[in-house]
């Protein structure tokens, strides 16, 4: 059991699975058949043994109530976190005390891991914050920053030449050359220590032959990349805030400014994206007192899932350091176990959502979307056969992005709505609206449904 005796919902558990295969495999293990010795404690630990193909069952334990976040331990050889056994155990636990008894005493093999984990967290919490560290060398840091600036400038100059050659030769050559041309250019930007430019170049490579109208889309994205290039090459002449945006967009890190903000943060959603080499996990949080929405990023390489795991619908009493001029945040100390019943963001209408995105776009021309919460909207078909979120009064609507239209989350949203108004959190941008989570009208404790 987590604090206040609240078990997670099935949606919250499935939202933690690293991929669709893990969700499917974990769902098959979410029944009592393969499990034995299951139990849960009032401190948020859940454990059990799952029968596998071998003679020895897999030992699985999950700490859902630790102040340092959710963690998993399983004796299976999987490199995914959580593995299918952890997902299955949590699904079983979500089914109620008849499946996983509450208030039990953990077996020795589970207690040993739980004790070690919480002792390490306590040592970190009580460790002196002013411990002496190796003295920094400001001059060496300045030289490193100067060398990286020179490399990025050289890379941006080379990229400008490549864009010029592409336009002079005609966009048709982009389709004929294939993706290799873009990957080679992206590799050059990585060598120039400009990962932001590399990422945008890879995105350009997916546009040729992507469907009707691709030349116009490619030209638009080339123009934005050209704008970013010119912004970097003249960043010393830009206003301070715009120059900071350009530095972030090319890939230079921005450090959190000021003290961390402590609040009761509701986990609105969590989802993963992968580029084949790196898995990026995004978690959106909303602060009850600050009324701020922040984005936490976590990464996993070489097939490993990111370490950050936050169940949508739970609230954290935690400190978050927010980066200046950005939605990005870094999760700091947590002051208790996650709980259900966090404060949902107040919704807005379609017009205000578009106006907010437009305002943010003025300061960041490369901004693809902005997080907003739409109140009293109904998922409905468009005359062209697509999908939109229409205001309950019928006066306005936002089309859904192609990604959202093709996602299984669309049908969860339609089911939740049942033809009536719902509140939807998501990303509003030039391609439309992408729903990320939703909840229906009703009591404050009504379930938040992940849509990713």
Question: What's the gist of this structure?
Answer:
The protein has about 450 residues and is of the alpha+beta class. The radius of gyration is 24 Å and the shape is globular.
Q: What's the structural blueprint in terms of helices and strands?
A:
Elements: H1 10-14, H2 20-28, E1 35-40, E2 45-50, E3 58-63, E4 71-74, H3 84-94, H4 108-126, H5 138-169, H6 172-177, H7 179-191, H8 195-205, H9 214-233, H10 240-250, E5 261-274, E6 278-287, E7 293-301, E8 314-322, E9 328-334, E10 339-340, H11 350-363, E11 369-381, E12 387-391, E13 397-399, H12 402-405, H13 409-417, E14 422-429, E15 432-440, E16 449-450
Parallel strand pairs: 7-9
Antiparallel strand pairs: 1-2, 2-3, 3-4, 5-6, 5-8, 6-7, 8-9, 8-10, 11-12, 11-14, 12-13, 14-15, 15-16
Helix pairs in contact: 2-3, 5-7, 5-9, 7-8, 8-9
**Residue windows where pLDDT falls under 50 for at least 5 positions:** 1-5, 130-134
- Secondary structure class reads alpha+beta
Total strands: the figure is 16
Query: Rg from C-alpha positions?
Result: 24 Å
Please give the count of helices.
13
- The string of secondary-structure elements, in order, is HHEEEEHHHHHHHHEEEEEEHEEEHHEEE
How far apart the termini lie comes to 26 Å
Largest sheet: 6 strands, antiparallel
**Residues in helix, %:** 25-40%
Q: Reading side by side through the largest sheet, how are the strands ordered? A: 13-12-11-14-15-16
Average pLDDT: 87
Principal-axes geometry comes out as: globular
Instruction: Give the amount of beta strand, in percent.
Output: 25-35%
Plain-language structure description:
It contains 13 helices and 16 strands. Helix content is 36%, strand content 25%. Strand 15 and strand 16 (449-450) form a beta hairpin. Helix 5 (138-169) runs antiparallel to helix 9. The chain has a six-stranded antiparallel beta sheet with strand order 13-12-11-14-15-16. Strands 5-6-7-9-8 form a five-stranded mixed β-barrel. Strands 1-2-3-4 form a four-stranded antiparallel beta sheet, with helices on both faces. The protein starts with 9 loop residues before the first helix and ends with a strand. It is α+β, with helices and mostly antiparallel strands and 452 residues long.
